[in-house]
Design brief:
Two copies of one chain form a homodimer.
Chain A lengths: L15 H14 L12 H8 L3 H14 L2 E4 L3 E4 L53 H14 L2 H4 L8 H15 L8 E4 L2 H12 L5 E6 L3 H8 L4 E8 L2 E2 L1 H6 L4 E6 L13 H14 L2 E5 L24 E6 L11 E4 L5 H12 L4 H12 L2 H27 L4 E5 L5 E6 L5 H10 L5 E2 L14 E5 L5 H16 L1
Helix pairs in contact in A: 1-3, 2-3, 4-12, 6-12, 7-8, 7-11, 13-15
């Protein structure tokens, strides 16, 4: 065990726990602490530093949460074998980066109206049964009782400062997003963010590239102002930059889901990320990075956002609380390059002035008081178990009838149907049995026919038992 | 005193109080009860009908609220001298309707960013000090504790049915809006409603007419999709239909504030309303009626909405809770012709999916449990007193330096400045003394210079004492 050099500055504007976090993180990234190395116990480090144990616990918690440290039951805390930031250093030009899957993302699901409801397989639904209802209700009630006139009057179109500060801190720490608080705007979710970006960035003569397949609602948002939405195929590494280049000029922006391609579930490789950033820089195009459910990954640790790798301020980063908390909250955020900030704020004001204040206040409390980080951490195990149950059920009841494309991350997985089955027809038959799936074909431009036939199966909102039972029913339907 | 024929049907889906209300209202409108006539006491009528006194009180309450009945202290309840619905029967063609001022409306104020804050004269601000905080906090807390999974998941883009039912009932009864529940959509306020209407109704080659002067933010919303916003002057009777006609073809829609012109405060006469409806019908154009603060009128009773006079489904009716409750709620509504409904719902979904559920639930409770009607009624006296205080203060401290244009309705009044004063400069000097006024000139196309120099003085958000003091300070500034 090394003695750590962790200079603390009590007059700093950064709290002690943040300084401990920063010091440990730096020591790990600079190699002063090596993968597999054991770190001091929180009690020992607190004594060394002459501080209480609380800030040390907070710092360890965050580092465990982000994957810098890992705990082994009964034997202490260790530096992780693989460090999340390793992709942040671009490989030398020409070198092929390891084709390892990184991070993931999704966003507002297509919501075919006839397949609504909260049945098993419902897309984009978090584990509402595991949400900390009592804590949330207490925070909301407290803020509702305390509402001051300023909280009831007109709010800032950019969002409540306290919430923007908390979001910026979270994004910097957990998603390696590089941002100042001023760049963070609070909006009504990722749909609203995409719609807003379309208004600010796209004229009616412009083209905007979108991953094919992709979310029909996002496609509608991007084309809402008359821009031509150009479908660009996604391969195993992510959106095809070669295809983007072939589309030539006037592609003003490209919408991508690098961490978890929506809907197929693949992750963009490091090489593809760099090629995409390079394309955007050369063309002067914008990248809309929708990084929604990036917090959940089951095969390796979450990796940084595309935004954090971007040296030229071409990325507009979009996220939402719909899937880490719950959709009816209607709070998301957008991180914009400083040069675009005022145009985004003005457009947002023209749309709907500002977001409701009460939820922004309660949410800022929820983040600041640590409930958010705790909830995220707890949900990781919950979703992994649900995903495993779904995979087990599919293998047991549906083998030979469908193929799972990717189940590494997020709250849903995509499967391809064998034998020329019409997925929209299948979804209707599933709905009749109480199952709420989404057909894959509606995610292709034109809405079906041309695209692949498959199912998007959400597993976030259903218990393991319910998912196992649902796959049994799905097996019967496929059999029939 | 007549014996009233009020047949009650206990098996009806309408509650007893509603049947009593309907029966009395019909008797008044059909002339079976005449203006000035005394109606039975609630106790006597309850006995006559063989019901408890509660439903009779509820019905009388509503009729008093809407101006069908009036109470004279110590002498009972009487049919009002002037009946709100008298404009609903159009005058015979050619006949000139009385130039009486009717109803009023306003909406999201221009919010010049440098003059923010909650100082006296802040526009569009209700009496937050008189809001029933405890009741509201209780309803919100109750709903937050009770949130079911369905309330946390994805909601209906059209809005929560319970709230739409309550809004439709309110609009039918209080604003003579003709609508089915299906036509009511819940949105984030009147700004969002105008922005949504622009997306649905206007292409980039279209023209949209807007009252001149008008709200800069609404002007931005109407032009956001590339439509050409054509300013149409407002005279003493309202928007100039002659000027509209001169603009020729391709005016797809006209945005109007018939009940309370924003910002000047005039009300559209009945004759002008009929001419405008006639124009829209002939041209196949849409009328966007923004009917925000129509609940408050000080010189005569509120009159019906333009929408209720329209026989051809040309009116899109917009309202908001921002000014009757509080702006940070972010809940408004839009009533659309049935033929347009699906397009509005689809566009709304593309914008931001749906409105946060919790506030919709709490607001539905607030309306259903009668708190809303009570609050509206109480505020009428509060705002009248505040308006009177402002008028008194202006007469006392600013006489000869400015002219009040109109103070009949709403939460603000407009004044014109004498002697060529620059209103934007004056507003800056007022801000330095803690006063939050809005310059009138920014409401003209181009944002100043060409328009009239004046001030928009909000009185809703300040107490009488504060308004009197503020006018004294304004007098000193004008003197300097």
């Amino acid at each position: 065990m090394t003695t750590l050099h962790l200079p603390l500055d009590r007059s700093s504007e950064h709290p002690i726990h943040r300084q401990i976090y920063d010091g440990l993180r730096r020591a790990i990234l600079e190699g002063r602490l090596s993968p597999g190395q054991r770190v001091p116990s929180t009690r020992a480090l607190a004594e060394d530093l002459g501080v209480s144990r609380l800030p040390v616990l907070t710092a360890y918690d965050q580092l465990l949460h982000e994957g810098y440290l890992e705990g082994r039951t009964g034997s202490g805390t260790f530096v992780s074998g693989a460090i999340p930031d390793d992709l942040l250093t671009p490989p030398p030009p020409g070198a092929r980066a390891p084709a390892r899957r990184v991070g993931r993302v999704t966003h507002s699901a297509p919501r075919p109206r006839d397949e609504g409801g909260l049945g098993p397989f419902r897309m984009s639904l978090p584990a509402l049964d595991r949400f900390p209802h009592a804590i949330w209700a207490r925070l909301v009630a407290r803020r509702a009782r305390m509402l001051r006139p300023a909280d009831m009057a007109y709010g800032d179109p950019a969002g409540l400062v306290a919430l923007r500060v908390a979001v910026a801190e979270h994004l910097r720490a957990a998603r390696t997003v590089r941002c100042e608080v001023e760049q963070v705007l609070i909006v009504s979710g990722s749909q609203a963010a995409a719609r807003l970006a379309a208004t600010v960035l796209l004229g009616s003569d412009d083209r905007v590239a979108m991953e094919e397949p992709g979310s029909p609602l996002i496609r509608a948002a991007l084309g809402a102002e008359g821009a031509d939405v150009v479908p660009i195929p996604v391969d195993e590494e992510g959106i095809s930059v070669a295809a983007l280049q072939r589309r030539g000029i006037r592609v003003r922006a490209a919408y991508v889901t690098p961490s978890h391609q929506y809907p197929l579930g693949t992750s963009m490789t490091a090489a593809r990320r760099l090629a995409l950033l390079d394309w955007a820089h050369r063309e002067g195009a914008w990248l809309l990075e929708d990084d929604y459910d990036s917090e959940y990954r089951y095969v390796s640790r979450p990796l940084g956002a595309l935004q954090g790798m971007d040296a030229h301020e071409r990325v507009i980063y979009i996220g939402t609380f719909s899937k880490v908390l719950f959709p009816a909250l209607r709070v998301g955020y957008i991180v914009v390059p400083s040069a675009l900030r005022q145009r985004f704020v003005d457009a947002r004001e023209t749309f709907d002035l500002f977001s409701p204040t009460l939820y922004q206040l309660a949410l800022a409390d929820f983040l600041r008081e640590g409930h958010f980080a705790r909830h995220l951490r707890r949900m990781r195990g919950v979703y992994r178990a649900r995903r495993d149950a779904l995979l087990t059920g599919l293998a047991r009841h549906c083998a030979g009838r469908l193929t799972v494309i990717n189940a590494d991350a997020g709250l849903h997985l995509a499967v391809l149907l064998e034998g020329g089955l019409d997925d929209r027809d299948l979804v209707r038959r599933m709905a009749a049995r109480g199952l709420t799936a989404t057909p894959l074909s509606i995610c292709y431009t034109g809405g079906g026919g041309g695209g692949r036939s498959g199912l998007l199966l959400g597993f976030g909102g259903s218990t393991e038992r319910r998912l196992l039972e649902a796959t049994r029913v799905l097996g019967q339907i496929l059999e029939a």
